[in-house]
Amino acid sequence: MRTFAKGTINGRLTTDPVIRTVADKSVCNLRLAVDGLPSRKTGEKRPSSYFSVVVWGRLAESCRNLVKGQEVYVEGNLQTRTRETDGQASVTYIELNARTINFGNLPRSAMQRAA
What pTM value is reported for the model? Predict the structure, then answer.
């Protein structure tokens, strides 16, 4: 049986997406910020969380018109990558490999530029 970890993220883009080509396939890396929920005990808002998303193929091309601050809903598979740092330590990153993306509302700044 094949196992995988599925993830869902609903957040806002921290930067405009950049699409590049790798081995004749389009790839887009997105960075999403998700607002922290308030603590049940104190009501104090927790800090935001940040997530890396990788989008491939035609789905990556559809990200061309996204803008910083736009709301995005992403579903996909979680994957880990390990990279060696300058020293001998290794760092493990968790990314969401996107399968579906839904584009939400534009930020106010983008709506003002379009008007």
Answer: 0.78
